[in-house]
Amino acid sequence: MRAFQVVVHGVPSSLRYNEIPGVAPGDGHIRIGVRAAGINFSDALVVSSKNQVLPKRPRFGEHNDAVLRYLPDGL
Questions:
Q1: I need a surface site. Which of 25, 56, 68, 70 has the fewest CB within 10 A?
Q2: Residue 75 domain-assigned (yes or no)
């Protein structure tokens, strides 16, 4: 799986595009395949450590184009 990650705070170009291990969905979880993800102004504030509240890392983007890859029975 590939991901943009905030490794260190800085300018938006400090985001790192890394290969990370995939995780199997647990009970009651779905799996999605993200086809496109937006990086916007609020993401730039988080990367630069200027947001009012810094979320826990890893932080996943809020604007994604995704398809459902796995839906467990009962959901």
A1: 56
A2: no
Tell me the pLDDT tens digit for each residue of 1-14.
888 888 888 888 88
- Which residues are CB-neighbours of 20 under 8 A, at least 6 positions away? 1, 2, 3, 5
User: 3-state class of 54 per DSSP?
Assistant: coil
Residues 26-54: tens digit of each pLDDT: 888 888 888 888 877 877 888 888 877 77
* Distance, CA of 34 to chain centre: 10
- Examine residue 32 and state whether it is found in any structural domain, yes or no: yes
Give the residue numbers spanning the domain of 57.
2-70
Q: Does 47 reside within a domain? A: yes
